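We modelled each protein-ligand pair independently. The example shown here corresponds to the zinc ion entry; the chain sequence is given first, followed by the ligand as SMILES.
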Amino acid sequence: MEKPYYLPKYSYPLIDLHCDVLSKVRTGTSIINGRRMGHCDLPRMKKGGVSAIVFSLFVFPKFTKEKNYRKKIDKQLNILQNTIENSNGEMKIALSPDDVRSNFHNGVASIIIEIEGLHPLDDGLGLLQKYYDMGVRIFTLTWNNSNAFATSSKEAFKNGIDPGLTGLGRQAVAEINRLGALIDLSHASDQTFFDVFELSKTPPILSHSCLRCFKNSSRNITDEQLILLAERSGVIGINFYTNFLSSKSMRYVTIDTIVEQMQYIKERVGVDVTAFGSDFDGISHLPKGIDDISDFPKIIEALESNGFTQDEIVKISGGNFLRVFGEVSSKQ
Ligand SMILES: [Zn+2]
């Protein structure tokens, strides 16, 4: 038996709730062996002590014909399956919080699968079950584009109208609840957010967003939304994109800016809603001091030196997400 590789770094699972690497590679070989470009691969995950990560399946609507949306998603799933098969047992798909925990104890990296934006599933509800059966556990209702299910934050801000969930979207929320999968509201419009909060039987998440009081971006949530999220015991993965983290020029955005957001959440509603949602391989600018996923230990150190207790760091690093994941999957 080879030695587990994550255990020496942290005694708890460190989880990143959003990474776009699957839409950036042609095969999984570079994920296993390392890439010269980008932010995430297995060697750098090991270095960063990251034991679980959410890989998103994503189709850029502008550059893809609608009839090819599904093909693209399936291709990315295929790349992921090949990656896992060729990883020599170092990576596995996690379908539940128990999978994440047992993989962690065995020194195996967990991959949790998300579909970012339901536009490839526009035909209807049946595909939710199909992709759930293929391992998807997080459904992000929209990307920047609105779709047959819901209004996106970007289009609501741009057009000044925000109808929120459509009739089909309402049915989708019920279906995702029934499946026991997570509803992700990053990229969703404010009205979509409130509609889901009214309808969903389980706590929603925001996998990769920030706070609007730091940067007035449609991708970020207001204090009112943060309070609702805390009341429903949901979770928000803080995005590392400089342009979401702060309204300051990116030169001044550092690891401390991430910590400031987490500090604000802690003071406002407590630490139980905070998580990491880097958006690695999906963003063009990172805070000073972070080059890629191997730099996670610097963020953990910054939390420690800013007074976060070990218990709080365990929750932020993955405990909070595993709590929600457990609650949602047990509602099946
Ligand atoms: Zn995104």
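Residues 59 and 72 are 6 Å apart (CA to CA).
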